[in-house]
Amino acid sequence: MYVRAMMERLDYGFRGFQVPPTARRPRSTRRRGPSKKSAEVGQVCAFELLATLAGKLLQDSESSASSNASEGMNHPAFSQSVVEKERQDEVKPLKAKGIHNGSCAECTVKTEMESQRSIQKCLEHAETDCILECVSVNDNSCSDCWEKVEAEVKSKRFRWENKFEHHSNRLVEIPEDVRESCDGVIKNGFRQEQETSNSGFMASPLNNNFIFKEPLDLCINSPALFDSNSNIKSPFSGGLFPSASFSRHGNDNKLGFRDDDENFLRWNRVWTKSKAFKPPQRCRRIRKLATSKCWKVAPNLKDCKHSRTDEGVIPPYRKRKTCYSFVRYRHGSLFKRRKYFGWGSVITSDGGFSSDSVSNSPDKGMDGDNLNSSAKLHVSKDSHVKFSIKSFRIPELYIEVPKTATVGSLKRKVKETVMAMLEGGLHVGVLLQGKKVRDDNRTLRQSGISCEESLDKLGFMLEPSSMQDSPLVCVGDPSPCKTSQPVRSPETPALDSAITNALHDSLLTNNVNLVESNHDSNSFSTDPIADKITTDSRTLVTVPTRSAEALAVVPVGQKTRHSELVQRRTRRPFSVSEVEALVEAVEELGTGRWRDVKLRAFENADHRTYVDLKDKWKTLVHTAKICPQQRRGEAVPQILLDRVLASHAYWSHHQAKQHTKHHQIVTMNDTVLMASNHM
DNA sequence: GTTAGGG
DNA sequence: CCCTAAC
C-alpha cells in the first residue's frame, strides 16, 4: 500500500526556475588568479545593490485564467514590448514598468537608455532569480549623500510605496535593499507558468506594486533617473534626498544605499547558513558546462539584446542530466529547499559609463583565465565603478503532488513553496575575501572594497532573514545544523534518499527496494534533509547545491578563494536501498566500471554521479571492514556489508587475475609474435 | 569523459 | 564529497 501510494505521486525537484543565463564560471576559471584588468583602481565610494528576486508563485490554472492587466505581463513576449514602450515613454510610471517578465539576460541589457532602468528591470525579473545591480558612486558625492541621507532617513520613514504614490515616474529606478525588493515582489504575488515543454517554471510578478515596509537608507544620485526633458526632480523629492547633494556624472546612475548588517534578517527561523559565500558546487558536468562553449548557447542573450558583450552570462545549469534532473519522482516530502538561494555572478557593466571605463571583451569576461571575468570592472578616472550582480538563483525546490493533481494545484504548490522560502525576507551580505563585512558604517574604502583588487574579492550574498549571522557555523558539516533543527514537518517525511530510492526503485528495481526506500525515509527522519524546513536550513547552511546554489555571490576566481567560496554539494547519505542497488550492480559489473554501475543502477538518480558511487563503494568496503561500533550513520545491514566484502574480494581477485591473464596473454602473443618473426 | 586515489 | 592526475 505504501508503495502504491508512493507511486502515485510525482515529485518535482526544482533547482531554480528556468531561466536566464546565469552564469557561473567553470571551476578552472574560478581558480584562476585575480583579474588582470588594467582598469584604474576605482575607489568605490559606495555600492548600490539592487536586487530583485524574481520569483514566481503560482496560481491555479483556473484561477489564473481570470485575467487582469497583469495577466499579459506574464507573457514572455511582453517584456520586450514593454521595454520598447518604455523607450518611448521615459516617464512611464512605475506601474507600467514593474511588469516585465523578461529573462535575466534582459536585465543585463544596458544601453544608455536602459541603464537607468536596469534596476527596475531586475526587479521585474520574474525568473525567480534575484538580480542585483550594483553601482558604485563617487566618493565625494557619496559621503555627502550618506550624511544627508542618514539625516533624511532618520527624520522620515521611507516607504517605497509612498514614493511610488507620490512620484509616478522613475522612482522605480531607485535601488532597494534586496530583501525588501524580494519581499515586496513576493508580497505582490507572482504568477507562475509552467512550461510543459521543458518542465520549466517561470515566474513573473503579478504586478509592479512593490511595497517595502522598512525604511530605506538611500543615497541617491541618479541623474539618469530624470528625464532630460522633464523637470529635474529627485525621485525623492519628498525631501528625502535633496538633489542638490548629488553630483551628476554623465549617464551614470549613482546610487547608494546603506544596508545595516545588523538587520541581517532571518529568512526562516529554521534556516541556518554555512559556507554562505561558497558558490554552489554542482556536479562536475555542470561546472564543465560553464565553459566558453556554453556562453554561445545562451539563447536568451540574443533576444535580450545584450548591448554589452562583456557581461558575463552564465549558462543555466538546467538540463544537465547528470546533475539533478529538473523533474523528479519523489516520495514523501512536499518539497525541499536545498542550499542557499543561489549565487550570482558579480559583473560590472560599463553601460553608460565614462569612456575610460575598462571595457571587457567577451573573451576577457568569460575566458577561463580570468577569474574576475565574472566580475567585470569598469573603473573610470573619477573613481566610478559600476558593477552588477546578476541572477541569484533560487534554492532547489522539491515538490510532490499526486499524479491526479491539477496543474493548478501544482502551481499553487510551487507558489507556496517559494512563498514560504521568501516569507522571511532576504538580506544582503557583503563578503570580502569570503569574510562578511559586518560594519555597515565603514566606508568601502575602509573596508578595503575600494579598489579593483578588492572588487575581485568582493562578494554578495542573499540570505534568508532567518539565517544566523554566522555563515560558517555549519560549513562542511551539516550535522550541527541538524541537531539544531528540531523542527520537522510531519507532512514531509520523505527524504532525499527516499525519493531517490523511490525513483530508482520504481524504475529499476523491485518492491523490496520500494519497501526499503520507505524504511529509509523513516530512518532518515533525523536527517535535516528530510524535513522541509530543516532541509531548508540545512540547505542554506551546507550547500548552495547545484540548482539551488547559494545566494552567495562571489567573484569566483582565485584558487585560494576557491576553497572558501565554493559551496559543497549537499551531503546525501546513501540509503539502504541505494546501497543495495550499488552492491548489486558492483557484484555484476565489478569495480572499475563505475559509469556502467551508474547507468545500471542509478541512472535516474541524478544526484549520484559515478564518482559518488565509486566513493560510496570505497566507504562501504571500509565500513565493512571495521567493527559495527565504529560505524556511523545509518546502519547498513550486515548482509549487505558481507556482500560488499565478498564482492570486493572477488573483484579484486578477479581483476588481478584478469590483469595477470591479460599480461600472460600479451606475453604469450609476444612470444608467438617473436616466434613468427623468427619464422 | 572515466577511473583511481588521495584529501 | 572534492580534487586531480592519468588515461
From TrEMBL:
InterPro entries documented for this protein: Homeodomain-like_sf, Myb_dom, SANT/Myb, TPR1-6-like_ubiquitin, TRP_plant, Ubiquitin-like_domsf
CDD domains referenced in this protein's UniProt entry, alphabetically: SANT_TRF (cd11660)
Domain Myb-like stretches: 566-621
GO cellular component: nucleus
SMART domains in alphabetical order: SANT
Biased composition (Basic and acidic residues): 83-92
Biased composition (Low complexity): 62-71
Composition-biased stretches (Basic residues): 24-35
Molecular function terms from GO: telomeric DNA binding
Protein name: Putative transcription factor MYB-HB-like family
